[in-house]
Design brief:
Blueprint lengths: L24 H13 L3 E5 L3 H5 L1 E2 L2 E2 L5 E3 L5 H14 L6 E7 H6 L2 H9 L4 E7 L34 H6 L5 E6 L3 H13 L3 E7 L3 H4 L6 H10 L6 E4 L2 E4 L8 H5 L10 H14 L5
The chain binds thiamine diphosphate.
The site of thiamine diphosphate has 19 residues, from helix 2, strand 5 and helix 4.
Amino acid sequence: MALSIADLPKEDLFGQGNAGCGGCGAAIAGRQAMKALGSRTIITIPASCMATMGGSNLKTTWQIPFYHTLFEIAPAVSSGIRAALEAQGIEDVNVVSWAGDAGTADIGFQSLTGAAERNEHMIHVCYDNEMYMNTGGQTGSQTPMYAITSNMTKGKTIKKKNMLAIMEAHEIDYVASASIAYPLDLIEKFRKAAKKPGFSYIHILAPCHRGWKIPPERTVEFARLAVESGLFELYEVDEGKRTRTFEPPLIPVEDYVTHQGRFENLTQEAIQGIQATVNRHYGRGE
Ligand SMILES: Cc1ncc(C[n+]2csc(CCOP(=O)(O)OP(=O)(O)O)c2C)c(N)n1
């Protein structure tokens, strides 16, 4: 039977009193994921907004053990935590590394690919706000083409690197994309990942209103428009089997990119180019 909101635990293991901006997409992702992971979870977080907003020393927003790691090493630290649990015969704990797009796809990539290759018993989460937000919104490999950032003020000139495809190529137990606008889909995917004996990777689109230059109260709405337009596909690769988990209505990509300040330089020609790429991906006639 399909999961419903009523089935979810009432307790919030992350979220209350966090130091994030109002309307922070990453904080919403954390709150949703913890509904699936539960209290028997240890989380490692490298340098990022999420590490900062989670607190430090004795005051953390996480109601579970939370380890703030160096930028490059969250999956390596999680691997060590899993080894320590195994040495003690403890089997009922989820071990999670939770990083931003830079901590996943750029500066944290070497430890991620190593842990995935070893098929460590853990979940790596990328919350993707498509910029380096904690240091002022710089461009990274997950920034989409044309987006204006603090260091590319005319817009990025190269494409977003496809991290989901890269992780799929590791042939790990489970790979999934998720969006904070589809909480039940997201929670279902975390539940599946938590049951796997090896490595899982979940990539969550979590808009940042500061970087995207959108009103804070519209964070979830833009996370939804990204999916509805087909630009961010919701799918999973479970033991090698690929399934789309939501069929998007394919609204025009223009409805997603306009009203985001970061795309204010986008030309009609560029929008048509993006639309053609989406159409091709979904096999829609051009
Ligand atoms: C080795 C290293 N390089 C750079 C930094 C500075 N730094 C801290 S957080 C951050 C950006 C993190 O971006 P991302 O992982 O996308 O997470 P977000 O801040 O967007 O939540 C950078 C560059 C650092 N702490 N360590």
